[in-house]
TrEMBL record:
It comes from the Bacteria. Residues 149-392 form the Chorismate-utilising enzyme C-terminal domain. This is isochorismate synthase. GO terms for biological process: salicylic acid biosynthetic process. It comes from Oceanisphaera avium. Coiled coil: none annotated. The keyword Isomerase applies.
Length: 412
């Protein structure tokens, strides 16, 4: 559907009410922008294992309208996804937001859930649960341990920050602020909500491509292993060099690449993944990243079925998957919902792009819940993971104009 970068620009005037009446989906990345309006039909919801088949059945019986489904997968692969066929695709748009591009002021104290010290305790408990078979000094026994599916090697633990605004937040204004970082893909999409609740949105700026399909070409760009960007260029370069050389971060990264390669290899005639990650940077974070590129054996495999197969990768969940999911459910006090899920689109030919739904906020009326997670491995240090998650909130906090002096909840 979107093979070429689009360049035309139109202007639309959108306020929060219109956005609600006409569900608006926006995915804006360095290569192209996809915007959709309205909703013709919902994909019957289900879990990741049935996603590919449901999408296929949907397009086999699709009504008139754009032959594309847009939406989100929740973090929990057993929970229900939320995809729909939009009524119209818009050209790339310079959003003119009614009332100017203002966000309401934040009021009251932010609330960290869990509190940072509790998060540190969660990390310590997780490190204790990680099998010594996975310690970086014992890599030779690691594959054996993973094969047994019995030993936890990595789990990604998240925390959240609740913020209260003076009045209703327009999700499009927040997305527009996030767009200032052109290394990320920003997204805004409506989320399922209870009938008596205000409209809910997921708004974020993801640096991480879960899967992209164009014809038989597949790409994935997993990230794992992080360091905060620093204002001083010399210190910033040192932080990046330290990240590249960190055995703990390289280890954390390898879990993700191994899982994606293992899932894609049986479906590809060619698959290329560099043996060492490279540095990837956003305005606020350094990451280790690996570009994986392959050729599918079969035309019949859609971006949706691959997203369902890969999600949740060890970049947001852990290894082995089920054990990591159990650990996350035991330790995290707040349900992730669609944070650490995936957002994207798939068309009737199977092409599509799905991004990992990180660096985001769940926005509902005048409240925002920001999420940030960090990969925990045998060598993780609780205080450093508290600091890393604090740094990962920065993308959203900068967009909201919140500085550290107003944010006691971030690290205390
Ligand atoms: C889970 C998140 O980040 C993932 C992506 C990049 C680096 C990560 C890390 O270094 O832990 C995480 O795996 C998040 O930002 O909430």
């Amino acid at each position: 559907m979107i093979a070429q970068p689009l360049s035309a620009t139109t202007q639309v005037d959108v306020n929060a009410d219109e956005a609600r009446q006409s569900p608006l989906f926006v995915l804006r990345g360095p290569q192209y922008t996809l915007e959709t309006r309205g909703c013709i039909a919902h994909l019957p919801s289900g879990n990741t294992t049935t996603l590919g088949q449901r999408v296929k059945d949907f397009f086999a019986n699709a009504q008139d309208g754009p032959k594309v489904l847009v939406g989100a997968l929740p973090f929990d692969p057993h929970a229900l996804d939320a995809l729909y066929q939009p009524a119209a695709l818009s050209l790339p748009t310079a959003l003119q937001v009614s009332g100017g591009a203002k966000l309401p002021a934040l009021i009251g104290q932010s609330q960290a859930e869990p509190a940072p010290n509790y998060y540190g305790d969660m990390v310590a408990r997780c490190v204790a649960a990680i099998s010594s078979k996975f310690s970086t000094s014992k890599l030779s026994t690691r594959k054996q341990a993973a094969d047994q599916e019995a030993h936890l090697g990595k789990a990604v633990l998240a925390r959240s920050l609740l913020l209260q605004a003076e009045h209703t937040i327009n999700p499009l204004v927040l997305a527009k602020r996030l767009e200032r970082d052109n290394s990320v893909t920003t997204y805004v999409l409506p989320l399922p909500q209870a009938i008596d609740e205000a409209p809910a949105w997921l708004v974020g700026a993801s640096p991480e491509l879960l899967i992209s399909v164009r014809g038989r070409t597949v790409k994935s760009h997993p990230l794992a292993g992080s360091a905060r960007r620093l204002a001083d260029p010399h210190a910033d370069a040192k932080a990046a060099a330290a990240l590249s050389a960190s055995s703990k971060d390289l280890d954390e990264h390898k879990f993700v690449v191994d899982a994606i390669v293992a899932a894609l290899a049986p479906l590809c005639s060619e698959l290329d993944a560099p043996s060492r990650p490279s540095l990837y940077t956003t305005d606020t974070m350094w990451h280790l990243g690996t570009e994986i590129v392959g050729t599918l054996k079969d035309d019949d495999i859609s971006a949706a079925s691959l997203a369902g197969l890969l999600h949740p990768t060890p970049a947001v969940c852990g290894t082995p998957r089920q054990l990591a999911l159990d650990t996350i459910h035991q330790l995290e006090p707040v349900d992730r919902g669609f944070y650490a899920g995936a957002v994207g689109w798939v068309d009737d030919k199977g092409d599509g792009d799905w991004y990992v739904a990180i660096r985001c906020a769940h926005v509902q009326a005048d409240r925002l819940r920001l999420f940030a997670g960090a990969g925990i491995v045998a060598d993780s240090v609780p205080e450093l993971e508290v600091a890393e998650t604090a740094a990962k909130f920065r993308a959203l906090l900068d967009a909201l104009g919140v500085d550290d002096t107003h944010l006691h909840a971030l690290s205390k």
